Amino acid sequence: MFDKIGVENFDDLIKAIPEKLKLNRPLEIPALSEMELLAEMKNISNRSSTGLTCFAGGGVYDHFIPAALGTLLSRPEFMTAYTPYQAEVAQGTLQVIYEFQTHICRLTGMEVANASMYDGATAAAEAVIISCGASRRNKVIVPESLSPLYRDVIRTYLGARSIELVTAPMKDGTVDLNRLVDLIDEQTASVLIAQPNFFGYLEDIDVVSEVAKKVGAMLIMSVDPVAQALLKTPAEYGADIVVGEGQPLGVPLSFGGPLLGFFAARKKLVRSLPGRIAARTNDVDGKTGFVLTLQTREQHIRREKATSNICTNQAICATAAAIYMSLMGKTGLKKVALLSAEKAQLAAEKITAIDGFEKYGGGSFVREFAVKTPTKCSEIILSMIDNHKIVPGIDAGRWYKGMDDCLIVAATELRTEEDINRLVSGLKEFSKSNVLSGM
Q1: pLDDT per position as a tens digit, 278-299
Q2: Are residues 417 and 274 in the same domain?
Q3: 183 in a structural domain
Q4: HEC profile for the chain?
């Protein structure tokens, strides 16, 4: 190899690398057997993860992932698959995408879905842009109870476009319906609302849908795929576009990424969908085959006619989600949602029984809820992590002014009653010490 590239030795090969970046000592690798090495690596991994019990949510959730998922996902035809431009050599990848789309359509009640997107936030941004193009209007309404991260991404996407983004205020954890209704008019292209919202509460979608339809505005829903197993489908609410974050469907937390967004819509909008779509067809011999279809990305058509420049569909995460939904099935997903709801109800009941803690807002919830705390949430979170190895939730004050005493707590099927009791015990301890120090 050195002869071919014209260098005499390894040092010549790496001489372009600055000396300060080179490791000028031997690697300190102990002489371990494979078994001992794996045990040591596991210890290092455990130290780096700190073994925290997670009650945080806000869009990314700690759900159980079946062991079979990792085995299937690691198959080389999935793990190393490239963008399926050539259908004749990418049938497996295209079939997985098609099955993912089918699952999303069944989950949402929509007629078409794409091959997934970067994450839920970018899917939401693409949805509002499509609504403006389809309606030829330039006003979009989002409630304050929609994830602030989603609203930031939408605002960024719309920054170079002549689209007005209007935020409807929130009241007690859900959108102020009276204010929202007043904002919807004949210039409104769409209303984007989450079910459940950022605080975990259920919005009154029927009212929003009815008012939006009266003026010809589209209803866009951002939904939680696990909660969907228990709730009315967006199609039943009359939604035109449905988006969401697919991470709860078999994708690990991984410090918040990578994620995958799903995007579904009514058939009339199929030619406006961003990204790619896989379809099933028959070849010249009548055999079933899969292809990419209705390509509207700028890689395939003239840029000025493209509906999107999205270049990836987070394929490996979408494959994980497809495998997860196939393994769980309708009954399994519903059981996950029910268990999560039961754990969340139990946690809410026990936390709000602690002196100084009370439920924020009066909305119904599935697996996430908000509580008012006796002091700043940031202090509670740090104390719980340091003293009890528990992440008790997320601090609403990071995004909402004047809400630094509002803790958003999420519970999934992974959280045991013992975990919940440890959380409650830690919060009681903090509350007691806080009262004593205040005295």
Answers
A1: 999 998 899 999 998 887 665 5
A2: no
A3: yes
A4: CHHHHCCCCHHHHCCCCCHHHCCCCCCCCCCCCHHHHHHHHHHHHHHHHCCCEECCCCCCCCCCCCHHHHHHHCCHHHHCCCCCCCHHHCHHHHHHHHHHHHHHHHHHCCCEECCCECCHHHHHHHHHHHHHHHHCCCEEEEECCCCHHHHHHHHHHHHHCCCEEEEECEECCEECHHHHHHHCCCCEEEEEEEECCCCCECCCHHHHHHHHHHCCCEEEEEECCCHHHCCCCHHHHCCCEEEEECCCCCCCCHHHCCCCEEEEECHHHHHHCCCCEEEEEECCCCCEEEEEECCCECCCCCHHHCCECCCCCCHHHHHHHHHHHHHHHHHHHHHHHHHHHHHHHHHHHHHCCCCCCEECCCCCECCEEEEECCCCHHHHHHHHHHHHCEECCEEHHHCCCCCCCEEEEECCCCCCHHHHHHHHHHHHHHHHHHHHHHC
